[in-house]
Structure to design on (548 residues):
């Protein structure tokens, strides 16, 4: 199921730190304060009417529009000494600094971050996808990062006997069973992965599939089989989560006993470490303990490479332990669909705000509600929007992506024109004096950029930390983030407003700026007279200058 997510990125890894997302002070769209840890935000909406059939996907990673066939131009790198995303470069040349989309997009599979969902497919298939993403990065000059999303050990359906989906109708009787069926399986029969399912349910219980996309009422129990009548029809998808409600309350005792990371998840994590993915997202996180355990495991197995751990907030337990989970993790996704199956619907908006498009599964246009949903996420200045099912198996993946892209660009443009990017109240995230200095420098640089209407902010960062601090300020102008390593460049591609470049630079800021100006002017990405404000990891100062 596609879902609306919020992604909060703290700075835990020693060589790659990401700041806490601050409170947004816009009075029309208030956001509740988050715990005092370093974060950034991503929201992944769902355009569910694009979901139905599997098709091949293109992997554009930048901010520009692609052509009708999804083709993007390749970028010549190496000869110029600087690397930047191909489509971003094309957009900057064509439309200028202010045209770039600040909100990033995550797709299964593609755009700024390629998500691989371990609920589906074999490890061999996912390995092929990873290889394709990396090959396109090399050939096209993209910087697409890879996020591996674990399955988790919550109760869920099987694979529908190989079918991509199944439609339900009101009043139909379906059988949910723990039995293993041969081929072909009985009509309207679904496997459940939890052996105690038939024992735990009671006649009269309400069974929610995929966060409430389809609803059933339990009518009869016959041994290992549970007969259910469809009360709210929709589309069933393989591996969808199942939740039980009884007398208006969630039945959560059994799920609470299941481990957060299953034995299969550990094998998938080993696979992700071996493949060098950039992010590992852990499903149904209940406490900080599992995050700390996993990060220790990755540190021992990853041989020096940095893999960020993302906690998926999908249960009531996640909300109860929200602060400690965010403190421990490198980021947090809020899965609104799954969360909505575990709390009353009227509480979902406030839960989403605290942690900060479902009709496009089968239809090629978004509903007004879905567009409004995306718009609100962009207005809250989330780092990114994510598509899952719509782009993974939908009938209209490119149209779903086009909706996200066009709505994001339009809302961002309106906000800039309305001067809604007023000063933000930022919580302190540094624990050392040097960190506090870096925060103040970035806060001041962002304010100067807004007040002076600078064309761009430049940040030279080896770890990504200063770029993240600038991103959380949400300045009006784009942020050119220059880093020396490919892995940091990929991870920065996830954060709001950052345009990551790979560039060799020294501790001499004057030399770095002269080199950068020369390279970017030669590529037509900047011009003489552009106003630039620069900061760096190496020099605790702010430099303001016009491009010579």
């Amino acid at each position: 199921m596609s879902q609306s997510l919020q992604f909060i990125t703290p700075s835990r890894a020693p060589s790659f730190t990401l700041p806490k997302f601050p409170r947004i002070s816009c009075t029309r769209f208030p956001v509740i304060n988050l715990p005092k840890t370093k974060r950034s935000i991503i929201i992944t909406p769902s355009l569910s009417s694009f979901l139905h059939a599997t098709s091949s996907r293109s992997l554009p990673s930048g901010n520009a529009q692609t052509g009708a066939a999804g083709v993007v131009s390749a970028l010549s790198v190496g000869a110029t000494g600087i690397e930047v995303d191909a489509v971003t470069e094309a957009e900057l040349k064509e439309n200028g600094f202010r045209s770039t989309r600040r909100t990033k997009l995550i797709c299964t599979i593609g755009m700024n971050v390629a998500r691989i969902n371990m609920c589906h497919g074999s490890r061999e298939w996912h390995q092929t996808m990873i290889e394709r993403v990396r090959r396109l990065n090399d050939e096209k000059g993209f910087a697409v990062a890879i996020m591996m999303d674990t399955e988790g050990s919550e109760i869920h359906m099987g694979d529908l006997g190989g079918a991509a989906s199944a439609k339900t109708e009101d009043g139909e009787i379906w059988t949910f069973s723990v039995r293993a069926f041969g081929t072909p399986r009985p009509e309207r029969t679904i496997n459940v992965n939890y052996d105690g399912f038939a024992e735990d349910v009671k006649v009269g219980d309400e069974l929610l599939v995929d966060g409430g996309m389809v609803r059933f009422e339990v009518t009869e129990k016959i041994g290992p089989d549970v007969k259910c009548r469809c009360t709210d029809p929709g589309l069933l998808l393989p591996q969808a989560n199942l939740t039980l409600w009884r007398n208006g309350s969630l039945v959560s005792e059994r799920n609470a006993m299941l481990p957060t990371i299953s034995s299969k998840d550990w094998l998938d994590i080993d696979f992700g470490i071996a493949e060098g993915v950039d992010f590992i997202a852990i499903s149904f996180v209940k406490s900080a303990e599992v995050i700390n355990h996993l990060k220790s495991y990755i540190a021992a197995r990853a041989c020096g490479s940095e893999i960020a751990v993302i906690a998926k907030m999908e249960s009531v337990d996640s909300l109860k332990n929200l602060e400690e989970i965010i403190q421990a993790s490198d980021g947090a996704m809020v899965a609104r669909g799954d969360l909505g199956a575990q709390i009353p619907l009227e509480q979902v908006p406030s839960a989403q705000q605290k942690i900060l498009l479902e009709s496009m599964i089968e239809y090629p246009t978004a509903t007004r509600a879905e567009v409004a949903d995306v718009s609100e996420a962009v207005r809250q200045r989330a780092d990114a929007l994510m598509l899952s099912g719509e782009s993974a198996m939908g009938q209209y993946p490119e149209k779903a992506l086009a909706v996200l892209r066009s709505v994001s660009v339009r809302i961002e443009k309106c906000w800039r024109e309305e001067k809604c990017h007023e000063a933000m109240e930022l919580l302190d995230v540094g624990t050392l004096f040097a960190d506090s200095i870096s925060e103040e420098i970035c806060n001041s640089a962002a304010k100067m950029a807004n007040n002076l209407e600078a064309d761009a902010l430049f940040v030279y960062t080896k770890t990504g930390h200063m770029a993240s601090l600038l991103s959380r300020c949400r300045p009006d102008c784009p942020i050119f983030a220059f880093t020396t390593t490919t892995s940091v460049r990929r991870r920065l591609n996830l954060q709001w407003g950052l345009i990551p470049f790979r560039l060799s630079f020294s501790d001499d800021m004057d030399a770095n700026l002269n080199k950068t100006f020369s390279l970017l002017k030669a590529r037509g990405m900047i011009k003489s007279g552009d106003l630039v404000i620069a900061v760096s990891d190496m020099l605790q100062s702010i430099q303001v200058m016009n491009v010579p």
In short: The domain at 263-417 is CATH 3.20.20.60 (TIM Barrel).
